[in-house]
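lol ok so funny story. i was supposed to be doing the assay writeup but got distracted and ended up predicting the structure for this chain instead. priorities right. anyway since i did it might as well share w the group, maybe its usefull for someone
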Amino acid sequence: MPTTTTVYFATNRVVSGSPEDWQSYGTSIVSPSDPGAVTYGTAFVDNTDLTADKTGMIESIQNVNLGGFGPQAIADLSQPARNLLVFIHGFDNSFEAAITRAAFNREWFAGSGEPEADTTVIAFSWPSLGKVITLPLPFADYRRDQVMAGQSSIQFMSFFANLDPILQQARAAGSRIFLLAHSMGNLALQAAVESWFSHGRSSTLLFDEAFLAAADERYDTFEFPPPGHLSDLDRLANRISIYFSTADAVLGLSTAINLGAQRLGQEGPQHRFDTSRFPPSQYRMVDCSGFRDYDFNFASSHQYYRRSPSARSDIAQTMATPRIV
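and the output, tada:
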């Protein structure tokens, strides 16, 4: 039976035409220092198919607003009657791919059968080129996307700031808040977290759970002096789950492009066995290297979080099990 999935979104992509037309959202970044230039809206995605890799299509975009969500979206998200999932896409995603992937993720986790994983989804789309991953991994396109993810820091931070009061109201109404960052989306996330604290913002509980999947970010990201990289993520998230795989072929190429710098999504973080540094109650390390319960190949080895039923089950069960502080 056809489904329509609602995706609330924010994007710092340049909009070259009508903001109600998904084809207007390009690959250039709006002025990086102007949070008011970020476009917020609501997209409706039809025909999400959990058996396919390229899924769904954007049927319409409504309630477009600059600088923050409009009144209708704020009202919807403040009283969502379900948990909330904030999604950050990685390298190689156009605007269309980012929104339809967010819809896929919503339906994929809802399909786990775990009620807590049946969420309302919010996506942030930074201006990746959206090129298809091929062999060899296109060096220039990859480097360009790294720059775009890093330059999104202030606008991503403002997105979090705009979400903060909405999330607090949703939590007060009984919802829990999840963050899912995939691949190079973790680079954009670290830029936002670093910007948050370097601009003097205080600790606040934005996310009950932060899921870092196949993270294309440095493996020593938690070791930087605060507020460097992801060292302060634990001041915004109650628990952090890190999903990694030594079989992730895409991150193997990423390591080569980054001159041998190991990625967080390959073997987890530096010192991951140090439980004083990473208390198991606060940091979950999930080794997905052996997952083969899906069509496994070069590109899909990087997509296990949304292709492997085993990975989905772990994420859904974690959504259903709050950390007791």
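The CA atoms of residues 45 and 201 lie 35 Å apart. The chain has nine helices and eleven strands.
back to the writeup now i swear
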